[in-house]
Amino acid sequence: MDKKNVFETFDKIGEYWSPRAVAEANGQLVKVCKIKGEFVWHHHENEDEIFLVLKGSLIIQYRDREDVILGPGDIHTVPRGVEHAPKCDDEVMCLLFEPGETAHTGNVVTNMTKSVESQRAHLAS
Amino acid sequence: MDKKNVFETFDKIGEYWSPRAVAEANGQLVKVCKIKGEFVWHHHENEDEIFLVLKGSLIIQYRDREDVILGPGDIHTVPRGVEHAPKCDDEVMCLLFEPGETAHTGNVVTNMTKSVESQRAHLAS
Questions:
Q1: What is the mean pLDDT of residues B13-40?
Q2: Under an 8 A CB cutoff, do A48 and B70 touch?
Q3: The whole model's pTM is what?
Q4: I want to staple B41 with a disulfide (CB 3.0 to 4.6 A). Which of A124, B2, B85, B94 is the partner?
């Protein structure tokens, strides 16, 4: 398929914290995320990660710097190597831009961890 | 600054076809674009280019394949090496995701061409 719609994709996601890739370019993926609650603390050793919030309010919690609060339209880069944990009281729609090989929960594995393959599963459909 | 807002950035852009970078990660830039009319035909030899439309309706014209029409929320990748020309009758807000070194008008230079530096100028502000 030549195009995907990020809002329609969001509406189809049935599980929080389960990103769905919608575009690929130059080894990078754009992923649609439906999230609510608190994610696991983690870092990505070699990958920066861009968050763009489209609906709701998201807090990027940091250990070593001030938290960043993102509302609709806010875009923010989590630098590689920096421990962080996204958190939101109410449902948030955000987009992630990151390299295709980025591990969902970075340096840790938990029962929240989604495989790279599961995130890519809808890309070719 | 830790974050930027893509809608506020869009409102500040005074010139069509003059992308403004708002985030950087892994050598890639996210750019906010305010566009209207028709852009020059061009291709990018080594870079894929992702378009995400947030307001309006944008046609990605192609020489060798069917045009792609993008509405709000639609995301589409223009593959490297493929000649294309964006076009819209009414004003469009879109985001571009592409490598930092991507030339604005690819393989051609016209009076529409913006330098890489001018597109990055607001990134650190």
A1: 96
A2: no
A3: 0.96
A4: B85
